């Protein structure tokens, strides 16, 4: 089975009301762990790489690792997605590498830090959509800005700043003008392990206060405008499990008051149209905790396999749980995957953007 367009994966998820995790990767062990979980739970999966990951892996290595994942897991629908593309050229490069989906994050300027105007976002996203759809490639866009910084990408907006959240009244106009296939909504989530400024009297972190109602508002407005079941995306959606933070700290880490998005909030979003859920920080925690444990308990070890194997195992266990919690498990065989060529033909028959 070749890698499939992410659009199909999300549309199939909408039909049965589940969410699909999009898991960030940088190396072989991460890909192996995620694919083992997907294969065992029979889950479609989105593997995504940031610009930082592409630089780290020197582009071609990541592509070949993904090709190996496809060969080893022929029954699993897999989309390869560019996370937070910062320009038309970046997205074009990813498409040339064989990515079946790209995100054009026009909420920020090309530097990945400065907040962009609505007009800029519309223009650059539309250009990417026109190029990508000719090749059957899915395009994710972002409306509003997320908090935090990830791989150097982000405006550094404070987690309690609600002035850059998605405006539900703009969503329909944005989708009509750009033709994007799915939309990342800013509802108060943020990148990284520290997603809150709320603490109890003892200094323990409390979950972030999210504007979850905006998900429902956007979905209703999209449906009223003739876009039923339009796929929404939650970024910054790691839950930062406290047991993983405790493991990191037990073995020499210094993570204090870290807190993520509760799973019940993510599931609330899935029930109201969220189809893609981005997960990165949780995987980093699982890997880091497992490696730290080996270094502390077995300081004599120096073979990388001695710590990368438990790291891979820890990530596998984490992702397996996510696939069950998101409702993805059991759906890998629900549909016949499309090729990019078939998707390109479908795009040709779609109405032109405004």
Question: What does this protein structure show overall?
Answer:
By secondary structure, the chain is α/β, with parallel strands linked by helices. It has one domain (6-190, 212-235, 262-280, 315-348): Alpha-Beta Barrel (TIM Barrel). The protein is 45% helix and 12% strand. The chain contains 13 helices and 8 strands. It has helices spanning 6-16, 28-41, 51-57, 60-72, 88-96, 118-133, 168-178, 213-224, 242-250, 263-271, 281-297, 304-325, 340-348; strands spanning 20-24, 45-50, 78-85, 101-104, 138-143, 182-185, 232-234, 274-279. Strands 1-2-3-4-5-6-7-8 form an 8-stranded parallel β-barrel, surrounded by 10 helices. Helix 2 (28-41) packs parallel to helix 4 (60-72), helix 2 (28-41) runs parallel beside helix 12 (304-325) and helix 5 packs parallel to helix 6 (118-133). The longest helix is centred in the C-terminal third of the chain and has 22 residues, at 304-325. The two termini are 35 Å apart.
């Amino acid at each position: 089975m070749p890698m499939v367009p992410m659009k199909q994966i999300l549309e199939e998820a909408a039909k049965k009301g589940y969410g699909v995790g999009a898991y960030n990767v940088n190396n072989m062990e991460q890909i192996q762990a995620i694919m083992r979980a997907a294969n065992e739970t029979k889950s479609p999966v989105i593997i995504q790489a940031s610009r930082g990951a592409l630089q780290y892996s020197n582009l071609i290595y990541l592509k070949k690792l993904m090709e190996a994942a496809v060969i080893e897991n022929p029954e699993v629908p897999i989309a390869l997605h560019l996370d937070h593309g910062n320009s038309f050229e970046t997205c074009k490069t990813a498409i040339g590498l064989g990515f079946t989906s790209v995100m054009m994050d026009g909420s920020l300027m090309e530097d990945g830090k400065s907040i962009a105007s609505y007009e800029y976002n519309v223009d650059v996203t539309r250009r990417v959509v026109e190029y990508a759809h000719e090749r059957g490639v899915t395009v994710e866009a972002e409306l509003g800005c997320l908090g935090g910084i990830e791989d150097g990408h982000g405006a550094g907006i404070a987690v309690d700043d609600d002035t850059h959240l998605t405006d539900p009244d703009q969503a329909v106009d944005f989708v009509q003008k750009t033709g994007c296939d799915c939309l990342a909504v800013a509802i108060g989530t943020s990148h990284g392990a520290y997603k809150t400024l709320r603490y109890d009297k003892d200094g323990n972190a409390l979950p972030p206060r999210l504007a979850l109602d905006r998900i429902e508002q956007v979905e209703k407005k999209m449906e009223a405008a003739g876009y039923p079941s339009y796929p929404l995306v939650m970024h910054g959606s790691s839950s930062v499990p406290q047991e993983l933070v405790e493991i990191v700290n037990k073995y020499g880490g210094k993570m204090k008051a870290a807190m993520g998005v509760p799973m019940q909030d993510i599931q609330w979003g899935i029930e109201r149209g969220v189809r893609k859920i981005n997960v990165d920080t949780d995987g980093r925690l699982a890997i880091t905790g497992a490696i730290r444990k080996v270094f502390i308990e077995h300081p004599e070890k120096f073979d990388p396999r001695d710590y990368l194997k438990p790291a891979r195992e820890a990530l596998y266990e984490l992702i397996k749980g996510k696939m069950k919690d998101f409702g993805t498990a059991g759906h890998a065989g629900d549909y016949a995957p499309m090729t990019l060529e078939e998707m390109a033909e479908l795009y040709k028959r779609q109405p032109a953007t405004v």
